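Students often ask what a 'structure token' actually looks like in practice. Rather than answer in the abstract, let us consider Methyltransferase domain-containing protein, a protein of 235 residues. Its sequence is given first.
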Amino acid sequence: MSESLSVSQTLRRLRQRWESLVRRSPRRPGSHASLSSVTSAYARWAPVYDVVFNLPLSFGRKAAVAEANRTRGKALEVGVGTGLSLPDYDGRLTVSGIDISEDMLVRARRRVADRKLANIAELRAMDAGDLAYEDASFDVAVVMYVMTVVPDPASVLRELERVVRPGGTVIIVNHFASERGLRAVVERGLAAFGSRLGWDPLFPKERILKNTRMTLLSEKPVAPMGLFSVLVFQR
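Now compare that with the structural description of the same chain:
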């Protein structure tokens, strides 16, 4: 009985937390998130991020890291969050992670310490659109579930092109808007709550393809239900 009650209480708290997160952000229909609103959103998400997002985002996360593990050298993860992906990187990759949210990074650093992940070079608070790294610093960059969140995706792409060496790899995982069908209807309904949720449900894939000089090598949908896509680019 006590175990059932505990599960019930946990689910109720998670539901209340979700409702609180959605209510507390100002509604700005049709606008893309500002840097401050993104920071605020993820400060609120940080305590429950792993519980809410670990499973639904795990498929794209594992696919992206598996692709990164085909390379060697230095890797950059943009939007490392709470560090859910960090244990999956091959030990022969030296990984740096950045995120705009210090609240998320606190949890990522704790994960690195708890798991004794010796190949994690650093975890730093940083704007993805203004990376504090030298040109051609990395062999591969992994950008998961970030492009619909940042205020200026074009600037992020420019920075990726700058900090990844020529011939290197950039891996982007993201949800892209559907043009038709039930998913398109649902996405249009969610769009009014984009700034509250911290991401843009109507983000078009062309917003990436038209703002980069990199070569798209492959694209594949991933679970759940093909909601996300993994794009692999050559710098």
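One point worth highlighting: The longest strand covers residues 164-174. Ask yourself how you might have guessed this from the sequence alone, and why that guess would often be unreliable.
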